[in-house]
Amino acid sequence: MKVVVCVKQVPDTKGGVKFKPDGTLDRAAMLAIMNPDDKSALEAALKLKDEFGAEVTVLTMGLPKAEAVLREAFAMGADKGILVTDRVLGGADTWATSQTIAGALRNLEYDLILTGRQAIDGDTAQVGPQISQHLGIPLISYCEDMQVDPEAKTVTVKRQYDDGYHIVRAKLPALVTCLSELNTPRYMTPGGIFDAFQKEVTVWGRNDLKDVLDENIGKVGSPTLIAKASDKVAKGKGVQVKPESPEEAADYILNVLDEKHVI
């Protein structure tokens, strides 16, 4: 069984966010970490390796320094790491990013592709679904629990929903986007850290992407235009109510919780 995990190196927001004059993130000037949802996807893949002996390949697109998240994945137990990096890929929005990653994935054999639900630097939750569309494979998003049957070649997912959950099954190959609630990622081991720096990272550029047009990559291939960029988002007022009594307030809260299927 072959599992590919798509991960992203994202800014560590605790260290502050910096922007270029054109409104895009200045990634080279910021501390970076592996995207939390992607790390949960990696842990899910490593559990499949523990249970079924799956081969786990981790793929990332980014600056050359994004190799660090592949080394971290190696230290956690991943088998192979691929870095897709090229100047012409810079400034990509979700459309261009998904086109690029799909182009890289077309070079690989896979039974299951795992991604995080969304990245903390964009919060769009678009790249995973777009990749599945480009590759023409089934998608299950918002995974909070997952079971894989290698013999039947199926994946069964408990999919988080607004007022509950769905149980969805798909034939492999398929793509699943994972929530951070799916699991608790394992720590790197001292031996794993040592071994991680002995492993070779495969580096691909523009010419290694399969069936991808130039007009669909990088900033040129990004239809999204940034109107404004800010590192602070003002919070809305939310819903304001003025109950006339404690009893009325309690009834209101209970009704909301009941509508949300919390109780």
Give a written overview of the molecule.
By secondary structure, the chain is α/β, with parallel strands linked by helices. It has one domain: HUPs (Rossmann fold). The chain contains 6 helices and 11 strands. The chain has helices at residues 36-52, 67-76, 94-105, 127-135, 190-196, 246-259, and strands at residues 2-7, 9-11, 32-34, 55-61, 80-84, 112-116, 139-149, 154-161, 164-171, 174-178, 201-204. The strands form 2 sheets. A 9-stranded mixed β-sheet has the order 9-8-7-10-6-1-4-5-11, sandwiched between helices. Helix 2 (67-76) crosses helix 5. It is globular. It starts with a strand and ends with a helix. 37% of the residues are buried.
Largest sheet: number of strands, sense, barrel closure: 9 strands, mixed
* Number of continuous helical runs: 6
Instruction: Label the CATH architecture.
Output: 3-Layer(aba) Sandwich
What is the class in the CATH system? Answer: Alpha Beta
Query: CA-to-CA gap between the ends?
Result: 41 Å
Estimate nothing, just give the exact number of structural domains: 1
- Low-confidence runs of at least 5 consecutive residues: none
Name some characteristics of this structure.
Rossmann fold; 9-stranded mixed sheet; two-stranded antiparallel sheet; 263 residues; globular; 6 helices; alpha/beta
Short description:
With 263 residues, the protein is an alpha/beta fold. The protein has helices spanning 36-52, 67-76, 94-105, 127-135, 190-196, 246-259; strands spanning 2-7, 9-11, 32-34, 55-61, 80-84, 112-116, 139-149, 154-161, 164-171, 174-178, 201-204. It has a 9-stranded mixed β-sheet, with helices on both faces. A two-stranded antiparallel ribbon has the order 2-3.
